[in-house]
Amino acid sequence: MSEQKSTGGMVPWEVFVQPRTGAPHEHVGNVHASDAEMALQNARDVYGRRGKVVSLWVTPASAIHATTPDDSGPFFDPADDKPYRHPSFYKVPHGGKNV
Amino acid sequence: MTTATLDPELRPALFDYLLRLGDDALVLGHRLSEWCGHGPYLEEDIALTNLALDCVGQANGLLGLAAEVEGAGRDADDLAFRRDALDFRNALIVELPKGDFGFTVARQLLFSAYAHLLYEALRESAFEPLAGIAAKAFKEARYHLRHSSEWLIRLGDGTDESRQRAQTALDDLWMYTGELFEKDDTLRTLVDAGLAPDPRALEAPWRERVEAVVSQATLTLPEDDFMLTGGRSGRHTEHLGHLLAEMQFLPRAYPDAVW
Hints:
heterodimer, A: alpha+beta, Ubiquitin-like (UB roll), B: Ferritin, 65% helix, globular
């Protein structure tokens, strides 16, 4: 509650922009806002006025859970050294299209 | 019809009307631009200047079209920067100083609710270039209306201070709203020719929309129905002269400047 008072009720929201229909939403930055409607409008005004945007997502930054640098070893390293886990030894048959 | 196929009898009224619309946008755009660097926080500073750019863009289109209809060799810049206050045709409400944030929000709500209805109807104008400008301006006005509505709701239903400032703003602005719905000879001519919507027909839906937002904001509209007038015939408040002195200084002092 004291954190809310010092920020005046404004919290950070992460902004994701979809540049074309069907494309993934990409993270472009963040805005501060008091609620979802204002976050959407602020994101549109800050990120939506140059280049193509067909869809905009905002989410409170507090809803995003991220790995820490300490996690990167246990989370991501083991993927590197076990090539037999990757489908890199399978030869696609000649003429096979939708594999 | 286009400028080429326009009935010459309609030209003076159409020119006058386009000046009204263009000057509304130009003067309001200028007032909004005064918030640049002074917004309550970064995102809102950008929002207000975006609104300003939308308005100035509309002004550019409308005054450019006015100059074309006039056919006297002037262009949008001549109309924007080389006319004096007596020749401006904006409604008084847009020339009022920006005031505090509550005043800006309340003025924007009252004006955008009108502009939204006006441009929606103007998309059907028999004068095609105007219908084209209206199609774009309508989308912008919709966003301006959404933005100012949400802000008025948060200010009205906010702290004691924000509510008091928002209510004072509405009370002060109310007498300037009637002018938006005046129907004079210029409008009679254009309405009959299918070039412009009847402003009287816009008033009821405008009132309904404004009342809905104001009530959600837990504010009230003034009862008084005294309305100021004069902007459409060049009789402006003392504020317009100061605004033009600032806005027109550069092109008048350095007429050959290019960048």
